[in-house]
Amino acid sequence: MRPAAILLLLGLIWESRIPHSESRRGELGGNVSSGIRDSGSGIRLATHNLIAAQDSRIRELIDRLLDEEIGVRQKAAEQLAEFGAAAVPALEGLTGSPDLELRARAASILKSISENKVLSRHWRRGPRITLDFENSPAARVLEELARQGGDAFKFDAAAFQDPLRLKVKDSSFWDALDALCRAAPALGWDVAGDALSFTGKRRPDFPSKRQDEFNVWVEGVRFSREYDFTGNPRSMFILDLASAWESGVNPAGVEQKISEILDDAGAAILLPEALSYGNWLEVPKARIQRGAFYVPLPRGAKEIRKFARVRGTSTFHFPKSYQDLSIDLRSTPAPLTSDRITVVVRNFRVLKDSCSIEVVVSSPIGPGEPPVDRLPLGEIALVDDQGGLHRVRSLSRRRASSDSSITVLDTVEASLPEGRTVVSLNLRVLKDLVEKRVAFEFNDIPAE
Amino acid sequence: MRTLGAVLMVLALSGSVSLQEDGRLRELLRKLDDDAIEVRAAAATSLAELGKAALPALEKAAAEAGAELRERLAEVLRKIRERERLASILPQPSRITLDARDMPIRGVFEKLSRQTGTAIDYSAIPEAGRVTLSLDRVPLWTAIDQVCRASGRVMADVGPEHVVISPDPFIALPGKITDLFCVTLQRVDLSSKGAFGQQDRFEHFGANFHVAWEKGVHPYRVMKRMIELVDENGIEVVTAADNPEFEPTAPIAPDMIRLDFDVDSDRGPGPGATRLARLKVEIDLEFALKFAEVKVGLAAGKFPVDGECPEFSARLLRFERLEDEEVGTLILTPRLPIDGDLGPDTVTVILRDKAGKEYPATLTPVPPTNENEIPYQLGFTQAPEDAVFTEIVIRIPTEVHHERLIVDLKDLPLK
User: Kind and range of the H or E element at A376?
Assistant: First the structure.
């Protein structure tokens, strides 16, 4: 069986064994759900057979961890890591092995599995799209693309009845969408929250780079002339850059950078230093990150009609590992420092049917590290005396960053059923991140 | 008429006005009770103009008057008191008198700055420059403008807290000078966006103004709106109908004498414009005649800390240093229906330190947890780290005086 097929099957098993939301709640509460839930008996039988097949495959791979060839051992380790949760019990059995290398390898594979599990909640490989339409209304093609892409599209079906012809095979979501917009007489899209919304207006021919689950494009080039009556006129270009991602992909922060701009004569335009003040990354509110890049022109600079080259990167940061922390609230909690992250909770107040608390998370930013907000809101919960978990909502959130650290101050509140008292606060802070990077190079961008 | 007689008797005994004024007061009070409405209105205006000195006599007269006359006198008293309050926040402008013949510019500014409470830094002016001009009781901003203009070698720039005279060639900035205020247009921003063959072009217009007032003038808020923009082809790009509402500007610190503000529009003449036919903005400087005020003490260092006045109550949940600013969380709860509201454009929050220095807060609304409460995040970016803070003052104006300025600029060159 090809690894991709295995992963797909595993994905199915994962979904049927632990529903997504259940698994998140379970993990945070510390009582991971197990077993098959709420599935029909047919599916149950199928998954049993699959699990049996997996078990023998896992045993085979574990045997290979002891192979004399290092290449074979390495490959087996990678494949076991791809197995994910199903391989965990067997690997845990190996951590007590007298063989030092086997013990170390098992521990390392378990770490990868745990990181992949975290990552899989935020990133998934995009589905491959195949569309074959001859004289079909655009609305039908949109429906099919949304279905295959697992996406939500907003459009008025009645407005997209013009027939079109489109053949796309095994393509990425963004390539398929681009082909569709080109095939339709007038079709454009924009990101609307977690969905894409469509209009009957042709999408402009933005310079774009589509790579895997990501799409990066130059949305506009603005020219601004500042006439200063005190005698210091200035002018600048502003490049509007946008990075979007597929549905089901949830970055913890997106960083857009432009590293080089050449004018129409091929000369480099000096880029201003990136401003570090307040330059922190947070979980985007929609499936898009937009940014404006200011390119001041020296006084008396000659007119620029196009940019010969614009080069840069969009970096998408995904959580790879979290640190779960539990803070006892029955006595005055002391600050908690763990792996460079400091957490302070204070001002715990019990109100009539709710309670509120302030959480302050500070973390240093090393050179080259992204200034990511390390306190994802969805990851804070209060635990009551009966073990009940109460997710909090934010009353106010404030962030501040310097060159070397980022601090997040969150005042949160949770409703509490009558008769319960809060004993602790569970929170999960972002520890390690993995990045996916899209490097772009656009040539001959008209500056108009 | 019997009550009026009694009132006049009281007046005779009050002794707070001179005999001559006493006669005039009697006359005006008689007219305030006249049968003809025009006579009564004229008398009310004249009585109000007598000002503070007439207050004790009028108060006594009101106490003795019959219902109708008492009502009219109450109105006159209210007007006088309002004017008194206004005078304390909107004082008379400094009047500058100068007679300079080939006098060093520095010496001229030395003389000028002695006649105003507004600080003027003229230390950068070279010794050499001389100027000849004569000013007779000219308001401050006009005086500064005329000295700079006559010299041609110095330029005045109003900083946030004082005026700076620099040794730069004089440039007449477009704007408007009144007795108390000086508004200048600093720059305009003309942008366009070409978006890869899109039909609809996006153009943006922005204009940056400075509005300055003399030291001692205390607007609590300044509002602005652009009411006209006409391009060089005579096309009305912006009209008053586009901006029916005033927009707030930045919070005003207590020692501030200059505020920057921008007006902008998503339509504009574009970067290629060589001239603007007309740019008209309206500025509303608001002066609070009365405040509802709550103070919460920080000295104890314990939170939450509460305070209240008849109109609203305040609870400060926390107050602390976060990186490079002081921050806090404040919850306001109205106790009475307030004229205006407890919105971020109305509420002023000031942090006071041990030395009495004040720092204004920026207020960021936070979603409320119950419908009565209005929570805010406070940020004091100007507050230094080493100061000892004593209290936070929360103010809501309950009676407001408006000073409106219309700045109408024509034929502005942009090349």
Answer: none
pLDDT of residue A47: 46
How does DSSP assign A156-191, residue by residue?
-GGG---EEEEEEEEE-HHHHHHHHHHHSSS-EEEE
Predicted local distance difference test score (pLDDT) of residue A17: 29
B268–A contact, CB cutoff 8 A: no
pLDDT for residue A6 is more than 70: no
Annotate B121-142 with DSSP letters as a single string.
Answer: E-TTS-SS-EEEEEEEEEEHHH
* Phi, psi (rounded to 5 degrees) for A144: -70, -40
Class of the A320-433 domain?
mainly beta
**Strand ranges, E, within B44-174:** 95-104, 120-121, 130-139, 155-158, 163-166
CA closest to A346 among chain B residues: B318
Chain A CB contacts of B369 under 8 Å are: 354, 395, 413
Top CATH class, B290-399: mainly beta
**Cβ separation of B317 and A411 shorter than 8 Å?**
yes
DSSP code per residue over B307-344: EE-SSEEEEEEEEEEETTEEEEEEEEEESSPPSS-SST
- Asked whether the beta carbons of residue B318 and residue A231 sit closer than 8 angstroms, the reply is no
Pick the CATH number of B95-172 from 3.40.50.150, 3.55.50.10, 3.55.30.10, 3.30.700.10: 3.55.50.10
Residue B18 pLDDT class (50, 70, 90 cuts) = low
What is the CATH number assigned to the segment(s) A129-203?
3.55.50.30
Does residue A222 belong to the interface with chain B, where contact is any CB pair within 8 Å? yes
Tokens at residue A71, please? Answer: 């290449």
Give the closest-approach CA distance of B201 to chain A in angstroms.
10
Q: For chain A, what are the domain ranges?
A: 3-120, 129-203, 320-433
Domain formed by B2-89, architecture: Alpha Horseshoe (1.25)
Residue B343: pLDDT above 60?
A: yes
Do A400 and B303 make contact, defined as CB atoms within 8 angstroms? no
Question: Is A223 within 8 Å of B174 when comparing Cβ atoms?
Answer: no
Q: Is the per-residue pLDDT at A62 higher than 50?
A: yes
Top-confidence residue, A154 or A23: A154
Does residue B317 sit at the A interface (CB-CB below 8 Å)?
A: yes
List the CATH code of the domain at A3-120: 1.25.10.10
Most confident of A137-141, B33-37, B41-45: A137-141
pLDDT category at B200 given cuts 50, 70, 90 is low
pLDDT tens figures, A168-189: 999 999 999 999 999 998 999 9
B376 exposed, middle or buried (CB, 10 Å; 0-12, 13-18, 19+)?
Answer: buried
- pLDDT value at position A2? 40
Are B271 and A224 inside 8 Å of each other by CB?
yes
B200 shares contact with chain A (CB less than 8 Å): no
Residue B44's contacts (CB-CB under 8 Å, 6 or more residues apart) are B32, B72, B75, B76
